[in-house]
Amino acid sequence: METVLIAAGVIGLIFLVLGLGTWVFAGLVAVALGSLVWLGDFNLDRAGVILSRILFRAGNSWELSAIPLFILMGELIFRSDISDRLFRGLEPWAQKVPGGILHTNVFGCAIFAAVSGSSAATTATIGKITTSELSRRGYDRNLSIGSLAGAGSLGLLIPPSIVMIVYGVQAEVSISQLFMAGVIPGLLIALLYSGYIVTVALSRPDKAPRRLTSDVSILSSLALLAPVIILILLVMGSIYSGIATPSEAAAVGVAATLVLLALERQLSWSLFKESLASTVLNSTMVCSILVAAALLSTAMGYLHLPRELAGYIASLELSPALLLVALALFYIMLGLFLDGISITVMSLPITLPIVIQAGFDPIWFGVFLVIMVELGQITPPVGFNLFVLQGLTGERIGRVAWSAIPFFVLMCLAAAIVSIYPGIVLWLPNYLSG
Amino acid sequence: MARLLGLITRRLNQLAGLLAMLLILYIAGHILLEIGMRLFGASTFVLDEFVGYAVATLTFLGLGYSLERGSLIRVSMLLDKLPRRLHWLPELASTLLALFSFATLAWYWGHNVWRSYQRGTVSDTLAETPLWLPEGMVLLGMLLLCLTLLARALSLAAGELPTTAKGEL
């Protein structure tokens, strides 16, 4: 009983502090401190000494270096015209399928996701080009915004992925294996989206006009796609072949992007400086939340919360399927109000022991969690992809969220599929690691 | 007074931001160097250690810089609902809460850094780095964050509303 009260206290504190509008990283630190002192009867001295050490230990981590480096790579590409060429290169292919260049939204995002670690960056980069093109050519606005919102969140599932690095560090599982595990589910979701677009285009031809005017031939499209494919091969290839760790692959990716931009005379001092400045902002945001969450999870550990709650859930003897449904609902609820990194770091100390105890594979759960986080990116009132699209299209957030609903449902379907057939997730990492 | 503090903090944060950018380049450079040396069967032997310090320093030095630029995530639902003239209330409360938490941690962490310095504690690695150095950089970042929060609290108390932007990812 006491555990339940303490858990309620911690959750109440989190809601109060974050609801007030405190920055997530500072809020988590405040809750960690507050819950040790008020709920755990620690004096301020002891709480301060314990937590300040964790602060350093959590930040002092070599694995985290993949985060700023992958962000930098994405920022450099975002500011170059690589994404523009990606769009023009995909165009002649997409035009052969019902739904036309709507598919460039889906596959543009899927491909860009393979060089970028975040969904906001993916949505913004692809959306910057496609939203104006699509409306100019008379495509249905709901469909173009919705497919972009849904596909943009693939940035998290298709490696490299910042959320996966965060999960890997926290759950102490191999980030390389997580990266491999995300590939097939990511492609599955992309195919579901494309399938939906084809269905809509066939049943409602007015929503997706067919216009066969691309001045780009299939052959020259390959030349347009080359830079991004080279980058994917370099980064993903070095990880999958086992030559490089994710951090090393990220450094190689940064170097390759710089060389590529320099060769094409796109690299300017201002582009370089802006990318670096933006990288500092974004990686500080991610890493600080990660560090703060380590404090919170330490505090919860001292209060014996994770163990006792896991024990309590185990005593309910839920079937694995029911447990997953409960977790999915829990994550969708959190996703309404919080961003992906915060959800991951705050929930894991509690959910991971429960999931492991129920016999789920931690790599598989990582992918499941990322899909849950992706759902959170496209649900209002707080959904970062929605914010990005609101900024890009000038539409109201409600309209953007409304257009995303079919893609939300499709992603739920994908979550159900990987839950029923966990092999979809685990096959590639098992195959590649022999 | 508040204005002067704000000015000083902004300058310091610019400097810290610049340092953080250089650290990112350093991290990339060191990793590439290590990969290059591996081809010849050599190693710097300090990659994990130094890159770890750089990441910690980068994160903490970047806090004040990012806070000023509004790129640290917060839940803005209350602020969106509240009329603008009442914004100072939750803004001030959350600023003070963050200030109190980080000032407390900086206080205890400061003791720890000082002890490392006095005892000459070195890292348990080949490089035998004096630990007060990386620990001190993290402390510096925390202090700069406290200063940024203090300047923000003072300007809020003086009736100025800082612009709020949403973080992204």
Short description:
Chain B: Keywords: Cell inner membrane, Cell membrane, Membrane, Transmembrane, Transmembrane helix, Transport. The complex is a heterodimer of chains A (434) and B (169). Chain A is mainly α.
* Total DSSP helices of chain A: 21
Separation of termini of chain A?
Answer: 47 Å
How many distinct folded domains of chain A?
2
Radius of gyration of chain B using CA atoms only = 19 Å
Low-confidence stretches of chain A: none
Per DSSP E runs of 2 or more residues, the count of β-strands of chain A stands at 0
Strand composition percent of chain B: under 5%
Described by its quaternary structure, the protein is: heterodimer
Helix content of chain A: over 70%
Specify the structural class of chain A: mainly alpha
SSE sequence of chain A, one letter per element: HHHHHHHHHHHHHHHHHHHHH
Mean of the pLDDT scores of chain B?
90
Radius of gyration of chain A: 22 Å
Tell me roughly what share of residues is in helical segments of chain B: over 70%
Would you give an account of this structure?
The complex is a heterodimer of chains A (434) and B (169). Chain A has 434 residues and is mostly helical. Chain A has two domains: 209 residues, no CATH class; 219 residues, no CATH class. In chain A, 79% of the residues lie in helices and 0% in strands. Chain A has 21 helices and no strands. With 169 residues, chain B is an all-alpha fold. Chain B has one domain. The C terminus of chain B is likely disordered. Classes of the chains: A mainly alpha (434), B mainly alpha (169). Chains A and B meet through helix 1, helix 2, helix 3, helix 4 and helix 13 of A and helix 1, helix 2, helix 3, helix 4 and helix 5 of B. Chain B: Part of the tripartite ATP-independent periplasmic (TRAP) transport system. Chain B: Pfam families: DctQ. Chain B: It comes from Zobellella aerophila.
